[in-house]
Amino acid sequence: MLLRISGRLDAKSAPQLLERCAVVRTAGYNLILNLGGVTFVASSGIGALLAVAEQFREAECRIRFASLSAAVESVIKLLNLDQFLTIDPTEDDSLTALEA
Amino acid sequence: MEPARKQAPSAHRPEEAPPTEAGVDQALRLVARREHTLLSLSELSHELTISLDLFNLADLILFNLMGHFGTARSALWLSSEASANEPVLVRCHGINRQVARALGASCASRIMTYLAQGLAPLPASGLEQVVGSSTARLIQRADISLFAAIAARGEVLGLLALGPRVSGEPFGTVEEQALQASLGMIGVTIQNMTFYNRLLENNRQLRLANQNLKSLDQLKSEFLSNVNHELRTPLTNIIAYVDCLLDQRRGADTSSDFLKVVMEEAVKLQALLENLLSFSALKQKKLALNMTTGNVVPFLAAYHQERLPGVTEGFRELVLTCGADLPDARFDERRMLEIVDALINNAVKFTPVGSRVELRVRTASEDGRTWVAVDVEDDGPGIPAERLPALFDSFHQVDGSSTRTVGGMGIGLAFAKQLAEWMGGQLKAESQIGKGSTFTLLLPTA
Questions:
Q1: Of A62, B92, B243, B329, which is most buried, counting CB atoms within 10 Å of its CB?
Q2: How far does B51 lie from chain A, in Å, by closest CA?
């Protein structure tokens, strides 16, 4: 399953993101989260991404983050989250990795 | 003599090593981290004003802290009046819910008491002496890195747990200071929100009580007016005929007829006085339906907004979910909301603190017909299967007592079922032990 996120990822949109991801996880699908369209990410947004990643890990489903926008990438690098979140340069790379 | 020439100050400075590229990177990174901390605090102060729903607010708080410190695990417990010794798990992310609930039951209160002494965040690893070894193992299993008290104005309101930072870095002094700043804002917000929600709920109850008093007052006026008229007629007749009997000019042969009339009117008076004792029955006859056709969602959304503070104040979550493309329903707005209110009251009464109550509107197909279904679903302990068929009957007995009031102030399940049927609808209940109960109001479609 592929979800493309765009706009601001903050306190208002974070619960919506979790809700959408929960539907995918509950159905037992793996998920590619394309963050290429995210123009701003707040701490709440980062917290939501970490929560989603942990939920997929617990459910033994796989989640990959693709095409990070500059806004997302800078915060992820700053907090050294790239060791925890599985990040790919493009959607295709994520797809290939999930199919492997 | 030539005055000594002042040398340039820089000449006296020891030679400073030029900054290395790595040093510059480190400094820039430090600045970026500080900026991230400031932005996180600023976002938190804004986010705390977004919602008056405790559970929604808890999500925002935990997401902010997780993103601020880069941890994938967090949990929030709060003390409630209903369970002072066992803080209620409000939300957790990345920590198994059952484990977090067990921690709330086994040690959250003790940790809160311990933290109340200093109010500084405490590493989870140093708590074994406070909580005992078995609970310490539970904390380890939940992979909690530190605990912190949520406090305001000297009162400890709850407990926050954060997992380790996913980068592997420890919580340093700067992070602890930032966390304490966040906790200060969170504590005051939660306390203010609790007070505010309590105030709104008290206002709601006062308004309902006032409405009830007004309708009782109106009923009383109508009742007295009717009684006045009904009592007057036989009394007038009795007085008139007794007056005739006393009149010496009339013959004795008519006196027995007159006495018969006096007797009849006296019996009528007696019946009227007996009716006075059936006041509640009289009230029920006053119920009239004001049926309308339309979308139930705006009424339920307004009800949800009004009811939310009171339910939240009792540390239960109240969520409204509306299905798409709902058909119009036939209903009496006031009576429908009375039924929903009775169901919500029931859910709140029979579920423990921390429970989730969902008010859901959807389209349903049943008995070959399309209905608008209004579900009230809870995740409480559930109702034993053998009690379900008699659920409405058993409440009917309670409902039949002289203490029941009609409208607004809690009408009981039996009366809710009666109202649903008067509107051409149905009221049903399903339940599973350990999973919760769902009460469904089926409203006929237009």
A1: B329
A2: 10
pLDDT in tens, A22-81: 999 999 899 999 999 999 999 999 999 999 999 999 888 999 999 999 999 999 999 999
The shortest C-alpha distance from B92 to chain A (Å) reads 10
Closest-CA residue of chain A to B56: A15
B423 and B376 in a common domain: yes
pLDDT category at B275 given cuts 50, 70, 90 is: low
User: What value does the mean pLDDT take over residues B203-213?
Assistant: 89
CATH of the domain at A7: 3.30.750.24
pTM summary value = 0.71
Q: Are residues B373 and B348 in the same domain?
A: yes
Give the DSSP letter of residue B104.
Answer: I
Q: How far apart are CA B182 and CA B122, in angstroms?
A: 15
Which residue among A15, A43, A58 places its CB closest to the CB of B67? A43
Taking contacts as CB-CB distances below 8 angstroms, the residues of chain A near B72 are: 50-51, 53-54, 84
B72 interfaces chain A, CB cutoff of 8 Å: yes
As given in the structure block, the two tokens for residue B274 are 């007996």
B10, part of any domain: no
Given a cut of 90, whether residue B137 has pLDDT beyond it is no
ipTM over 0.90: yes
Q: Does B358 touch chain A (CB under 8 A)?
A: no
| DSSP letter for each residue of B173-209 | HHHHHHHHHHHHHHHHHHHHHHHHHHHHHHHHHHHHH
Name the domain count of chain A. 1
B-chain residues near A53 (CB < 8 A):
72
For A19, the domain range is: 2-99
Report phi then psi at B97, rounded to 5.
-60, -40
Condensed to tens digits (0 to 9), the pLDDT of residues B325-352 reads: 899 999 999 889 989 998 998 899 888 8
Does B218 share its domain with B297? no
